[in-house]
Amino acid sequence: MANQENTMKTRSIATALLLTGLLSGMQAQAKPQHKPQCQDCGRVTAVAVHDKDGKGGAVGLIAGGVAGALLGNQVGSGHGRQLATVAGAAGGAYAGKKVEEKARATKEWTVHVKYDNGQQANFHFDHDPNMHKGDRVRKADGTLVRN
Q: Are residues 109 and 95 part of one domain?
């Protein structure tokens, strides 16, 4: 009889241990696994390249004004010549400024990013960032780097 009681106690302890193990396994599975989200990570949605006008300075303005004045001075006589000279200088100055802006034009790359948290941002580069639509990226030190 004592042997039978020991066997029953052993079975009860084994059953309790087995149930404890199963319950702790179920609790471990019930906890959701949260992976920390990178707030500065995202994906490139588009890359656009466009020309960016340079700054027109005094050189274009003055050179254009002088050239315009010289051409205007060739037109008409008397007061008409004076008006043509002034108009030529004004038009030439404007044209000279625009020519200088175009001569100093550069290319600019704009990279559009959609972050993992749903926000969007644009980054501008004065050189080819070598990024393409679909690339994984992250914001670092105010610029964009590949992830």
A: no
Residue 4 pLDDT class (50, 70, 90 cuts): low
Please indicate, yes or no, whether the overall pTM of this predicted structure exceeds 0.85: no
100 vs 43, higher pLDDT: 43
| Total tally of structural domains belonging to the chain | 3
Same structural domain for residues 49 and 109?
yes
Q: Are 113 and 137 in contact (CB under 8 A)?
A: yes
Residue 54's alpha-carbon distances to 48, 66, 107, in angstroms, are 18, 22, 10
In contact, 106 and 92? CB cutoff 8 Å: no
Provide the β-strand partners of residue 44. Answer: 113
Strands in 106-115's sheet, in edge-to-edge order, are: 120-125, 106-115, 41-52, 136-140, 143-146
Residues 93 and 61 in one domain: yes
Of the candidates 94, 92, 103, which has an alpha carbon nearest to the alpha carbon of residue 55? Answer: 103
- Domain of residue 78, residue span: 56-103
pLDDT reading at 64 higher than 80: no
